[in-house]
Amino acid sequence: MATIKQIANLAGVSRGTVDRVLNNRGTVNPETAAKVREIAALLNYTPNKLAKTLAVKNRNIKFGYVLFSSTNENPFFDDVVAGIKKKTNELTEYGISVDTCFSELRDPSNQVKLMDQLVDSGINGLAITPINHPDVARKIKELSEKGIPVITVNTDIENSGRLAYVGSNYLESGKTAGGLLRLISGGKANVGIIVGSMDILCHSERVNGFKQALEGYSRDIKIVEIVENYDDDFLSFEVTKKLLNKHPEIDSLYLASAGVYGACRAVKSLNLDKKLKIISFDSVPTTKLLIEDGTIDATITQQPHVQGSKPLSILYDYLVLNISPKNEKYYTNHEIKIRENIN
Amino acid sequence: MATIKQIANLAGVSRGTVDRVLNNRGTVNPETAAKVREIAALLNYTPNKLAKTLAVKNRNIKFGYVLFSSTNENPFFDDVVAGIKKKTNELTEYGISVDTCFSELRDPSNQVKLMDQLVDSGINGLAITPINHPDVARKIKELSEKGIPVITVNTDIENSGRLAYVGSNYLESGKTAGGLLRLISGGKANVGIIVGSMDILCHSERVNGFKQALEGYSRDIKIVEIVENYDDDFLSFEVTKKLLNKHPEIDSLYLASAGVYGACRAVKSLNLDKKLKIISFDSVPTTKLLIEDGTIDATITQQPHVQGSKPLSILYDYLVLNISPKNEKYYTNHEIKIRENIN
DNA sequence: TTGAAAGCGCTACCAG
DNA sequence: CTGGTAGCGCTTTCAA
Fold first, then answer.
1. How far is Cα B65 from Cα B252, in angstroms, rounded to an integer?
2. Which residues of chain A does B51 touch, with a Cβ-Cβ cutoff of 8 Å?
3. Which of A4, A103, A245, B181 is the most exposed place for a label (fewest CB within 10 A)?
4. Using CA atoms, how far apart are residues A206 and B286, in angstroms rounded to an integer?
5. Residue B44 Cβ < 7 Å to strand D
6. A–B: how many Cβ contacts below 8 A?
7. How far, in Å, is the CA of A45 from the C1' of nucleotide C6?
8. Is B173 left (phi over 0), alpha (psi -120 to 50) or beta?
9. Cα of B226 to nearest chain A Cα, Å
10. Using the beta-carbon criterion (under 8 Å), do B176 and A297 form an inter-chain contact?
11. Which residues surround strand C, with CB < 7 Å?
12. pLDDT tens, position by position, A102-138
């Protein structure tokens, strides 16, 4: 492990100069710089992260986090918050503070306002679950150009200038669901699909992936109908009930987004629980119970904890250690949970 | 974030004294000690990990790792090694070195010899995939009593004095397999089980868990026969072939340990691939291929990467940060992989 | 029993 | 453009 001190000695300059060269700050005589660089390469120099972090304390770095408020219909974000909290504690010890605030679920202007507030308060980087709206995209671009890196979480907005995305690959998650149905249906099924809204990209991708995984089985696995519940449990209850009444031939349900509990209540009210194969997403408390009592056969999770913590790690690497994310998309794993491995 | 310096100032003593009190080293006037402790508690003092690690550099800490050599029949350990390597690099930067060596798979005396060598070379902590043999257990106890903490990996030896175990809960993994079969069989199956050896606890636990998960289904899911392959692919081929010939009613295979490839070759040689439901463990390269081509329906993994890295993290926490492991058993997750989410 | 000081590796600031 | 120095929080050693 080579150190700046060693390089300085070998190059016959001071550690300050080496620091300037290696971190491109200040100005250094090109020849000196070349020499330093050469020696650094020779010694295979890698900066010590601990020391770097420790020394950066007085820079008073601050991150902002804008998250969908989870008090609404989707407690999924509770698990994300847990991930944020854990990472925040770690960063606090490093002298980095994290300001987390919650935005309305369907109000872009509210998100923009929160972003502005965070910028005014002096954040150096931002993580956000962005609403897919031009105003939000524009604001992300504005921050990025200002030198404030932005990480999108859970939902991406491409071409917004964001530094990276952390979250599910929705097409893949849909494929996993399709593969799972193929297995548990024995290759023969009449499927009803319940989804938030086909206008939301994440949701339609989950449906598309599902279909893709079942190509070649289309003779025996039929999608009977796709209905929308707008992520609302009560609507979900209604549309599911109607769907099942309308199509008694349905033997499988694919719950492609939120509203899982409402849909299952409909299933139960028709005494169809354990008669239908049901696949869902995420592992919120109500879903866990439905897995445990056998109503839902399997659910596919997307590492909510990682979705909370990883964006902060990326910002830390980028701003403190000068390490850019290796990929612009960091996809979380899709974990299949059944009664026996859900905890 | 309170610091030692702050506490020292408030207590009117030097930082050295505070350090002595808070870390129980040297001797300190009881009254001074009490005062310091009080203030520390008041300020909610938590030591800064970065600073601690940085300062400990010159203690020249060294860990040993004894692992089953993966050149043998089970490339599972290749993934464990990857985890070890990654963590080792991180620790190297902290001034901690890791000496990893590989032991014969069935030779306890060889393991004991390697442990002795590592101790002689001055390790401060050890991680090991122990062979379940009294000599190894005794040596683990010896090291522990000498003040060298030992972490067991992948396989545990309880009551050996080891500090912690990192690895699968085999009973749970068996249950997960059982639950999975319940789902993909539609609740009706004649199962053949192929296992390394029922004399090996890990293996028999996987069978027991499997049975437990299927209790209540015993009318329709029948275990036809359990055969042993001693984790050898060629033996596995033979016994599987014999089993399937003997019991043409078998429609499902539970491959409870290694020898997955051999078993599947037998299935293919009888033209039964895709006619049998097959569940296996781990995700070694050959298994991946068999998942992709549809021979194996699902495989259950056990976070090999974590099994490699986590033991080193525990040793680091224990020896550098003075943090004891929260639990004596750290169980890895059982992840269900099918064609669509195996990568 | 205690204090003072040096050092882990890096950054930042002030002179020159 | 460069050197010197102080400091991040903790440990350790040497004196007192």
1. 39
2. 54
3. A245
4. 29
5. no
6. 87
7. 25
8. alpha
9. 22
10. no
11. A 1, 3-5, 15-16, 19, 22-23, 25, 45, 47-48, 51-52, 54-56, 58-59; B 12-17, 20, 26-29, 32-33, 51, 54-55, 57-58, 95
12. 998 789 999 999 999 999 999 999 999 999 999 999 9
Distances A193 to A74, A196, A198, B39 between C-alpha atoms, Å: 19, 10, 11, 61
Tell whether the model's pLDDT for residue B100 goes beyond 70. Answer: yes
Q: Please answer yes or no on whether B298 and A183 come within 8 Å at the CB atom.
A: yes
Nucleotides on chain D that have an atom closer than 7 A to a protein CB are 1-5, 7-13
Which domains are delineated in chain B? 4-47 (no CATH), 60-168+304-333 (3.40.50.2300), 170-301 (3.40.50.2300)
Q: Which two tokens stand for residue B194?
A: 């192929």
Q: Work out if A32's Cβ lies within 7 angstroms of strand D.
A: yes
Q: Dihedrals φ, ψ of A222, to 5°?
A: -110, 135
* Length in residues, chain B: 343
Which 93-132 positions of A have CB less than 7 A from strand D? 95
Which residue has better confidence, B69 or B182?
Answer: B182
Q: Beta partners for B160? A: none
pLDDT class for A244, splitting at 50, 70, 90?
Answer: very high
Q: What is the pLDDT of residues B211-253, one digit of tens each?
A: 999 998 888 999 999 999 999 999 999 999 999 999 999 999 9
